[in-house]
Design brief:
Number of domains: 2
Number of strands: 15
Shape: elongated
CATH architecture of the largest domain: 3-Layer(aba) Sandwich
Largest sheet: 8 strands, mixed
Radius of gyration: 22 Å
Order of helices and strands: EHEEHEHEEEHEHEHEEHHEHEEE
Length: 292
């Protein structure tokens, strides 16, 4: 079955209204895509994050009269002649195509993140089995990669690791498989707790992973290693909370930070931490250091 796709350039102020308009005109699905390829991560529960320049992509049945749809949107003031494109999309086995494009990934010398439908490249490596699911974090994004590479380079034997903003649980699970004695995951989203639980069970480490919603986390949490892959704003805002999680001489790793935001985060944490040189990957970076 073929589909018709209407791609329209919009703005963050207009995208929601445009989405409702195309749904009213018969769209079977609507997707927002950043037209400047600037990713935004981990929205608050119930929040929709939009971008400054947003493409709204609407999918219609192949029998839809797209001239009438375009005419209707223009009448409502949502379309100009040069900001939309109509395309025919052939139906595919989208799940299979997506699976074919997801491959095992290596971080550092010995850590691999592997989807369950692929063969493990090295049976003697540290292999974390993780399928993309409800929560952010599969290793494909530079911020996750930076954190995984950092954890792989630490001596985690016998240590406790806190994954603050655990998402899929990938960092906590990787730490456990790299030798950590136990790990603690904290997140604001119940879906993240569910995803982390399922992924820990799949990797045989559920008995060593404790998970808490942020509002329910014990007040006395401490660990030798703390990693937080969230966003620059929350990292600065939560500095008092995150810094208190680290035991004396413990290690801290922060990511989810654009390189242009690195100095601001470093300035916030430099009071209590001896910071390493900032590590960069694409336009993203990681900040690490030891508690003074």
């Amino acid at each position: 079955m073929a589909w018709l796709q209407l791609r329209m350039n919009s703005t963050d102020q207009q995208a929601e209204a445009l989405s409702q308009a195309v749904e009213d005109l018969g769209a079977v699905s609507v997707t927002f895509v950043d037209s400047q390829d600037t990713p935004i991560f981990e929205p608050q529960p119930g929040e929709t994050r939009l971008w400054g320049n947003t493409d709204v992509i609407a999918l219609f049945d192949a029998e839809t009269d797209m001239q009438e749809v375009v005419k209707g949107l223009k009448a409502l003031g949502y379309l100009a002649d040069d900001v939309y494109k109509v395309e025919q999309i052939e139906d595919k086995d989208w799940e299979r195509e997506w699976m074919d494009n997801f491959h095992p990934m290596q971080f550092g010398k010995r850590l691999w993140i592997c989807p369950s439908w692929r063969e493990v490249p090295d049976e003697n490596a540290v292999n974390v089995m993780l399928d993309p699911g409800l929560a952010f974090g599969t290793g494909t994004h530079p911020t996750t990669a930076l954190c995984l590479e950092w954890l792989e380079g630490l001596d985690l034997e016998g240590k406790t690791v806190i994954d603050f903003g655990c998402g899929s649980g990938i960092l906590a699970i990787a730490a456990l498989k790299l030798g950590a004695k136990n790990a603690i995951g904290v997140d604001i989203d119940p879906q993240a707790i569910t995803a982390s639980t399922n992924n820990a069970e799949q990797n045989g480490v559920a008995d060593r992973l404790q998970l808490f919603l942020a509002k329910d986390a014990p007040k006395d949490l401490k660990a030798e290693v703390v990693v937080a892959n969230i966003l620059a704003g929350p990292l600065k805002e939560l500095y008092p909370t995150i810094s208190e999680l680290v035991l004396p001489a413990g290690d801290l790793g922060l990511s989810g930070i654009l390189t242009t935001q690195a100095q601001g985060v470093c300035d916030t944490y430099a009071e209590k931490f001896d910071l390493d040189p900032v590590a960069e990957n694409d336009e993203w970076c990681r900040i690490t250091g030891k508690l003074k």
